[in-house]
Amino acid sequence: MDQHIEKIQTALKRKIKNINISSSDNKVLSIPFEYYCGIQASISSGKFIFQNDFITPEEKEQIGLPRRDLGVDLTDKIEMIGQAKNWSQSIGLKDLGTFLQSQVAIKEDGTTAFIKWPQMHLYRSSESSLSRNLDTRRFKDIIYDADIFKKYLIDLQSKDEKKEIDKKEEEKKDEKNLIITESLQRLEESKNVVISVPIYEDDIIVEYLKKNRKQKCIIYVQNTISKKQYAKKLEKFKDTIKLEFIHSFKADDCIGYDKIFFTDAHRIHPQHLFDSTVPLNDGYIDTARLFIEKSNNCILLSHHIQEIPKCLYYHKSLRYCIDNGLCNSYEVLVTVFDVKPSLETLAEWVVKNLPNNCIVKTHNKKDGKEFVDCVNKLLPNSAVYFDCDDKSLDCLNLFKKGEIRFLCSPQLLDESFNAPICDSVLFLRPSDEQMYFTSVINRCLLLHPLKKQHSKIFFPSYKGDEKTISNMINILATYDEKLDRKKINNRESHIVTISIENEKLEIKLDDSDNSIQSEYT
Prior knowledge:
By secondary structure, the protein is α/β, with parallel strands linked by helices.
């Protein structure tokens, strides 16, 4: 028994080596929880309890378990199977359906059913609860204390490993605090200020309000989602702040306010606000420009704004944030088709090649809904069309939990929502509009415990459309000074030339799938 426990513990140490155990995301610790249940169940029962990873496909077939994981996480290989749930919400019949069905098997005659596993165990975290629609007579409910589980993992981590993880987390925290502190120093000045940082826009506002509780501030946002999210985050300051839509800007509304924040400022082309020679078609921008020229208390916040005359300017580049562990690194993947692909062709390619947690930027509403239908025909319930309404907010929450694979919308990349779990973005119809890329940066490069690889930015293209791809990569290069120094890994077959910062780069296409992969890290 000691050797059995030690074997599981050794494997568990490897699983948690680079994991932040204090993470509030229960999914991060789902597999470690299965191992933990195997250890505790073995100790308490005196039997050898095996987690799924310790049973070979041949053994599974021998003892009557499916080769694939269909809800059975643990077994004694004789009479018991179990499922482990490290959840913080209610567990219902739907969540255990596959597991409970595994109790019954069919004899060799193909018609007679019998109970294969007389003992059914549910191992769950103390943070979870059971739904009323569950018949608890069908299984043994075993609860493990969530705090004791996490303490067990912490104790299991070697001191050196834990120290290294803590050190990295502390360094990231210090870098974040430095950016926020330096931003706040500029906000204390009685001048118009531009803060151009890929992250922490909302944190800067919150910290400013904490330090200046008596000041009255008006915060301009882009859309309904932004307004709802800021309202939730700034609930404690509701008596001294006012949230408004930028498109309804009126100078008279700002009278009596100490600071005026323009969030997602790249959307309103802030340089236009200060350059009276730029022709404007938007009345509210013209009004805002005239107001800012006369004011000294406006704050423009965004991922990427060039230095603007008459303003204090604070800037941290994307590359700085990546190098200091504040953003995830990324890679660009360009797939070149022989001819301009249809939505059906793109849907087939997406289902085959794209990872989970992907945002799909569609050309328009019609394309978006048609593309979602195409994807769901191939992979049911994997894609959802997002619109700016309350129903879509529910879909957004499911996407944040990792329960929706593709979130599609023409305007989604422009919306101010925070979904760090997103690790890839696909431009369904490539465009060289710079505004999209500022949004891409703030969508798929945010840090998340489940992100173990580069985030991915996908550009589908076709032969003869090299100029669009060239423009897109050039725009990316404006955010990342390292991009123009990286070479693309050459492959055999067709050659497409792309110019980045006046440097000619040859992209060689792979005949097998008409795609190339180009890493920029």
